[in-house]
Amino acid sequence: MDIIISNSSNQPVFEQIKQEIKKAIMTDVLKENEMLPSIRNLAQDLRISVMTVKKAYDELEKEGFIETVHGKGSIVSAKNMELLREEQMKEIEKCIDKIILISKSSNITKKEILDIFEYLYGEDK
User: Fold this and answer.
1) Which of 20, 23, 73, 74 has the fewest CB within 10 Å, making it most exposed?
2) pTM
3) Where are the beta strands (DSSP E) in 1-115?
4) Contact status, residue 87 vs residue 26, Cβ threshold 8 Å
């Protein structure tokens, strides 16, 4: 599993780690019950603080994506399909918000946006 973090991002490093791991889980790069790197090893690999990785893991656990087994480390939780679907819906909403903002500032009508959507959605992607 490759985690890419950017020092130039406005997003905190722990959030970048959390998002990368969530993406890996949602796309089956990380499978159910698969072990995550230890907090210490991941911090060492990324050359960041152990506390930063711990915060990312804590948030992932709180959100139900991973489980921590005392003495063994952290594993990917059994997939909760509703949780994954909700995460994907939130991501779609963010993208739609950006589309609305751009279209309103450019005087592009809702109909024009829907036409583009219908055209692109109909294509094989």
Assistant:
1) 23
2) 0.70
3) 66-69, 73-76
4) yes
